[in-house]
Amino acid sequence: MPTPPTRGTTPGPPNVILDPTGTTTTTKTARPKAPRARRPASLKGATVGLLVNTKQNAAPFLDEVGRLLIERYGATDLMARTKVNFAQPAPDELIKEMAAGCDVIITGVGDCGSCSASAVADGIAFEASNLPAAAICSDAFGVTADAMAELRGAPGYRYATTPHPVAVLTPDQVRERAAQVLDDVVALLTR
Amino acid sequence: MTGTETPDPDAAQAAIEYCYAQGWSDGLPLVPASQPLIDKFLAATSRAPDEVIGELEQVGRDCTVYLAAVNAAMAGCLPEYFPVVLAAFDALMAERAARGGGWQSTSGPAPMIVVNGPVRHELGFNTAGGAFGPGFRPNATIPRAIGLIVRNAFGIRPHVLEQATQGLPGRWSICLAENEEESPWPPFAVDGGQPAGVSAVSATLLRTCEFVDNRHTPDPEQVLWDIADTISRTGSLIFRDTSAGVVFCPEHAQMLAGAGYGKAGVQAALMERCGRTGADLRRAGKNGLRGIARFADPDESGDGTFTRILPSPRHVPIVVAGARNAAISMVVRVFGEWSGTATPLEQLPAARERPAVGLTND
Asked: How far is B302 from chain A (nearest CA, A)?
């Protein structure tokens, strides 16, 4: 059995209670501050990337946001890709491809424990590739999205939210939600 | 108080409160870990303290043998349990869901750890009644160690990166030592690719457990139908396929074996019988398929079709656990799918005889 932390019964200094997190014994806490991409003045003529995370209604939601950006804000093209593993960060090749082919990008819809955090992590990764990003999350996952932003060196990273739930919305309701979040998305993507 | 022969409760309480104040606890008191204690854990394995045993890419955190030892000690493990903790963690990290978003998931899944071989008796695991606990130190503290590793080493804490909607009873507390002595079938570790008689650990993630109490029929077919009905409920179906294991009590297992059933036969019977009609699925809003995800499709044309939900024997893992005193088995709802692999335990036969200090240098 271990010796209990009695003082004065053993020679030398008392034992230290050990930290089980590893964060005080490694350098991982000292992360560089994440960069933020330079914003265009408007979306006129822009190619808008859509990174769909396969959650229910994510594809029609982002498709409608893209359509509205063309119709109302003068964007010209859409480049939609699907992220197969919604819980993990987007693969490097996908980030490179989107950064090369788009002017701005929208990720989402963060609608679960891992994918909300992941949508924000992707947004921050795109920013580092100088691609302005707007992540869209359900408002039930704000805390986990914020925690991920902090982990990625971007505390206070701003993203757009839409009321929970998203998965049960009808096609008409999805379009309505896309329209509601549109101004926030534009504000996140432009200066 | 100094100089007394008995431990100092005031110092112990202060140390426990210190651990709470650091945010390390799962809610229950922790054993404060000290270097001399951790040295004993590290002496129970040949693996280097700085070996990384698990990495969670999305949160940028990893777990080393050293951190696993600190968390295992805090969970209440004895040093000699440490090889089982490491094997259980290795087995879990073979699960796709555990490497991905499982620990963050709204479903809040629980690891189910299954221990086979001589280590069950060497370390005093409960292999009989009350298999799902509580009451036995290795069965209770080893899964708790996994939970503390996830919380502390991976940094996945409730309400923050952990987003369980309701969680489930028994999270971080399910460690079954298979009742090999009363099982008519080969040990579970054999299904995971290990030879019989070897100490090995298997693990998967569960969404819940559900009992099947069927003690009044002598007919094994009726028992299988009863289990199939429990597996087939629509509430747990979210994808096209599902995975559901059965932790058989010895009585059910022996009844089935007596009728000629091996594990493969049981698995085949359940794969054949588990499922629902299109009409049932439509009433539950789960008849449509978009990719592999189910959704509510108003189309009634599939109402008459029977849909099977267990695609392969690996989706029906079978374990035997518990006492021989009643015919009560447990359906265990696997989160994702079991990797199908068991991890052999590292054998350090001399470890327990060696002195407790000065062992970490080679």
From this structure: 22
